[in-house]
């Protein structure tokens, strides 16, 4: 096997018994990047140029999504408006990774400000899916997923506001976990929807996912929504034992419109788990149909207020109007935002400003918050009956670059199964569960109650170890 195909767990074992030198691994990764990044565009900037602050003990090349601050290094959220922005501090997760033997590679491509499901709204051009370069890697953490699947890094961090870790993991045939809201500090994550955003791992298998969550989880007083809940050793949950585990099957997640091969693969996965002794519990999450609409009100409202700070004064780009007489401060703001934001960002700022404006606030934003509570209560009730909920991660496998760019609603519907977990704040994982007839990966999602990451990892690991999907690598 190639060095760049190894998991973090395999690498650590090889290093421990002196079978592998960290320098050899780093060289292999850098060579791999110069070979395949021109194909995948997973990194916005040449990856070896942003390798930073190596110390001798640092071993594991970790990729960082371009919305997570790395002190002194370009962090642009895939947007022109942050062109030239170098954060004065490290995100909490970056501090933790540095302390745990990782070599930091920054600048993984993403949809602009994490707005999207395909990585096509990046100012720096789309990333491509390593399984088929004419297709999207998913989004918004498309660069993170593509980089892990292509062996450009050993593992990576992404952020997930409505599915941005899980959907790209599913499209690229890897594992992606959105932790419970409050599990991982958001300090140094450039905010999209502050009540929904979580940072999480994208890895080659479930073991790596548990290992990376061990590193990044935990309380941080600098994020007021971070929770002071002890971080267990998540690898302890990897027992292969799901006997008696109650797996809920929500009927609203098994509907017409899902690609038939996705449905078949997920149903087969349920059979595998049943064979391992899991108990199947049919259930209903009745407010699911309102989740996408609710999300696009709450998320755009929060985005419009978070993005108000980008006006040419403090961060990144500053553009002056070309007409010399027009040069008031307001004109500078306008020109900077007109030039700095792409179309999707502008659409979301307008939507979000609208739903928050006086006269509409009650009808849209306030109402959406109430529906959000109903969606959360659906899950609370469901978790009285089951331990973990299973579903497809996405209704389809990866689509062609350009296919959905002119149809925002079609793009938004790609997150129909991932959004509810963000609205409810619960942990959810996507793992590979097969391939379609075009040899594209299919993703399986598990969700559990708040801070039950161990339960999703346990179910995911038992399934993974009984199936071959995680062993396949994209050939580039
Ligand atoms: N695709 C969803 C959106 O466009 C979710 C993005 C995300 O999780 N950051 O908002």
CATH topology of the domain at 3-239: Amidase signature (AS) enzymes
Low-confidence stretches: none
What's the SSE pattern?
A: HHEHEHEHEEHEHEHHHHEHHEEH
Kindly name the structural category. Answer: alpha/beta
Which distinct ligands sit in these coordinates? glutamine
The CATH homologous superfamily name of the domain at 3-239 equals Amidase signature (AS) domain
CATH class of the domain at 3-239: Alpha Beta
Percentage of residues assigned to helices: 25-40%
Model description:
It is a single chain. By secondary structure, this protein is an alpha/beta fold. It has a domain at 3-239: Amidase signature (AS) domain (Amidase signature (AS) enzymes), CATH 3.90.1300. The protein is built from 14 helices and 10 strands. Strands 2-1-3-5-4-9-10-8-6-7 form a 10-stranded mixed β-sheet, sandwiched between helices. Helix 7 (260-275) links the parallel strand 6 (246-250) and strand 7 (279-283). The chain is globular, with a radius of gyration of 21 Å. The model has no long low-confidence stretch (mean pLDDT 95). The protein binds glutamine (GLN). Glutamine binds next to loops.
């Amino acid at each position: 096997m190639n060095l760049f195909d190894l998991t973090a767990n395999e690498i650590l074992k090889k290093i421990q018994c002196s079978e592998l030198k960290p320098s050899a691994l780093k060289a292999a990764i850098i060579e791999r990047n110069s070979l395949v990044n021109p194909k995948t565009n997973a990194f916005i900037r040449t990856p070896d140029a942003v390798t930073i602050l190596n110390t001798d003990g640092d071993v594991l090349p970790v990729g960082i999504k371009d919305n997570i601050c790395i002190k002194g290094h370009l962090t642009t959220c895939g947007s022109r408006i942050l062109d030239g922005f170098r954060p004065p501090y490290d995100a909490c997760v970056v501090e933790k990774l540095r302390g745990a033997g990782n070599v930091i590679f920054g600048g993984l491509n993403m949809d602009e400000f994490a707005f999207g499901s395909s990585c096509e709204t990046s100012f720096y051009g789309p990333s491509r899916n390593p399984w088929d370069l004419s297709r999207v890697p998913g989004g918004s953490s498309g660069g993170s997923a593509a980089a892990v699947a292509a062996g450009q890094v050993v593992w990576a961090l992404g952020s997930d506001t409505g599915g941005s870790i899980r959907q790209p993991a599913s499209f690229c045939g890897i594992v992606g976990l959105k932790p419970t809201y409050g599990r991982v500090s958001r300090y140094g994550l450039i905010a999209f929807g502050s009540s929904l955003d979580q940072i999480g791992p994208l890895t080659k298998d479930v073991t790596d996912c548990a290992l990376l969550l061990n590193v990044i989880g935990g309380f941080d007083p600098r994020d007021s929504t971070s929770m002071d809940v002890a971080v267990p050793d998540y690898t302890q949950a990897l027992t292969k034992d799901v006997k008696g585990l109650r797996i809920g099957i929500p009927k609203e997640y098994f509907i017409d419109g899902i690609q038939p091969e996705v449905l078949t693969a997920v149903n087969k996965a349920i059979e595998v788990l049943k064979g391992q002794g899991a108990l199947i519990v049919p259930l209903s999450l009745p407010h699911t149909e309102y989740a996408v609409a609710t999300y696009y009100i709450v998320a755009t409202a929060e985005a419009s207020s978070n993005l108000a700070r980008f006006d040419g004064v403090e961060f990144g780009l500053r553009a002056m109007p070309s007409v010399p007489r027009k040069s008031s401060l307001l004109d500078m703001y306008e020109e900077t935002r007109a030039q700095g934001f792409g179309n999707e960002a502008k659409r979301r700022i307008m939507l979000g400003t609208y739903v928050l404006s006086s006269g509409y606030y009650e009808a849209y934003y306030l109402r959406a918050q109430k529906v959000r509570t109903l969606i959360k209560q659906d899950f609370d009730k469901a978790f009285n009956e089951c331990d973990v909920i299973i579903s497809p991660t996405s209704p389809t496998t990866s689509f062609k670059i350009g296919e959905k760019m002119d149809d925002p609603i079609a793009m938004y519907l790609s997150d129909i199964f991932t959004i509810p977990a963000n609205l409810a704040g619960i942990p959810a994982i996507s793992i590979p569960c097969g391939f379609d007839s075009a040899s594209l990966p299919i993703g399986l999602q598990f969700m559990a109650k708040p801070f039950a990451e161990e339960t999703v990892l346990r179910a995911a690991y038992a399934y993974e170890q009984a199936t071959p999907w995680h062993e396949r690598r994209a050939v580039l």
